[in-house]
Amino acid sequence: MANSSEGGELNVTFNGTSPPCCRDNATNINLTFYEQSPDFYVVLPVIYSVICAVGLTGNTAVIYVILKAPKMKTVTNMFILNLAIADDLFTLVLPINIAEHLLHYWPFGEILCKVILSIDHYNIFSSIYFLTVMSIDRYLVVLATVRSKRMPHRTYRAARIISFGIWCLVTLIVSPFFAFANVYKDDLDITSCGLNFPRPERFWFKASRIYTLILGFAIPVSTICILYTMMLYNLRNMHLNSNTKALDKAKKKVTIMVFIVLAVCLFCWTPFHLATIVALTTDLPQTPAVIGISYFITSLSYANSCLNPFLYAFLDDSFQKSFRKMLECRPA
Q1: Does some domain include residue 289?
Q2: Known SUPFAM superfamilies for this protein (predicted)?
Q3: How far apart are CA 34 and CA 29, in angstroms?
Q4: For residue 91, which of 56, 126, 248, 323 is within the disulfide window of CB 3.0 to 4.6 Å?
Q5: Structural domain contains residue 46
Q6: Omega before 20 cis (within 30°)?
């Protein structure tokens, strides 16, 4: 079993996603931590439960509105739909992580261990990949508007095919975590769910963290930053050097919404990936403060799954109107 305490890496437990370190020795760390901070034993499940309830309700509402309202079937909303599905899937399994947290052991068997760890990692990769695709789409729309060109291939059907391709890509990326996920017993004979790496364990542990950092953050975020820089450059050029009309109000609103959703995602996930770098490059003692910060970083990454629906509701007029219309129709 990969032992993340080797070499002094940050081996703080993160229920489910194992950020920015693996879940090994989870129970021992949790028991020691809760002896020193007993209130945290209650506070963390409450935070996770709120995230679960709000995220499940909000994302289910987004899925329902986009699928039922004819006017909501747009290219951007197809990507938002898949983003909501990914968030909903994660919030559905969050109660299992809460149960493990309260019980201090894994009672659900090996198959569910593999499924839960895989879904946790789906959450890491799918959110940023769909946001990357949304950013590419926004860039192409802005570019076409600046050049006064149409986009005949930008259709709802094409968006569905691209979304399916993203799910296939994420499945491929997550498959190693499914293979390595396993149920094991520690020195105290307590059952845990974690990543069971082959020897040399320390090498595989570091490789898995670098793998997640590069594919789940560095590449997509770099792509997004380049796209938005080019987008701003084109908009500035359009304003200064062209008589082309400015983007219409609707396109501006969609672009702003995508940008804000992206900014919130980066705000929630950047500490997660920065903590990975810290875990790989420094030796941190397992003090209550370090463990508490680690749990806060995890909770922040989890919170992203329940924030997106509120962003759509506040920023997208068509979503608000469709949602209100469906609420009015339900009593009838």
Answers
A1: yes
A2: Family A G protein-coupled receptor-like
A3: 9
A4: 56
A5: yes
A6: yes
Quick one: average pLDDT of 111-135?
A: 91
HSE, CB side, 13 Å, CA atoms: give it for residue 63.
Answer: 14
In degrees rounded to 5, what are phi and psi of residue 184? -140, 170
Bridge partners for 184 per DSSP: 192
Least confident of 19-23, 218-222, 223-227: 19-23
What is the domain range of residue 314? Answer: 6-324
The tokens for 44 are: 């963390």
- Most confident range (mean pLDDT) of 85-99, 185-199, 221-235, 248-262 is 85-99
Contact 214, 273 (CB under 8 A): no
Both tokens assigned to 221? 């975020």
In a domain, 70, yes or no: yes
Q: Give me the DSSP letters along 117-167.
A: HHHHHHHHHHHHHHHHHHHHHHHHHHHHHHTT---TT--HHHHHHHHHHHH
Give the C-alpha distances (Å, rounded to integers) separating 109 from 75, 115, 131, 138, 198. 40, 10, 34, 44, 21
Helix orientation angle between 40-68 and 288-315, rounded to the nearest 10 degrees: 20
CATH of the domain at 49: 1.20.1070.10
Tokens linked to 133: 């695709």
Query: What's the CA gap between 111 and 238, in Å, rounded?
Result: 55
- pLDDT over 70 at 17, yes or no: no
Question: Is the pLDDT assigned to residue 31 strictly greater than 60?
Answer: no
Beta pairing partners, 193:
183
> What was the pLDDT predicted at 169?
96
The per-residue pLDDT for 11 is 38
Query: Do 30 and 13 touch, CB atoms closer than 8 A?
Result: yes
Quote the number of domains for the chain. Answer: 1
Calculate helix-pair angle for 288-315, 75-103, nearest 10 degrees: 150
CB 151 within 8 A of CB 144: yes
HSE (side-chain half, CA atoms, 13 Å) at 303: 17
Find the helix or strand (DSSP H, E) in which 163 lies: helix 156-180
Whether residue 330 lies inside any domain: the answer is no
Q: Which amino acid is at 42?
A: V
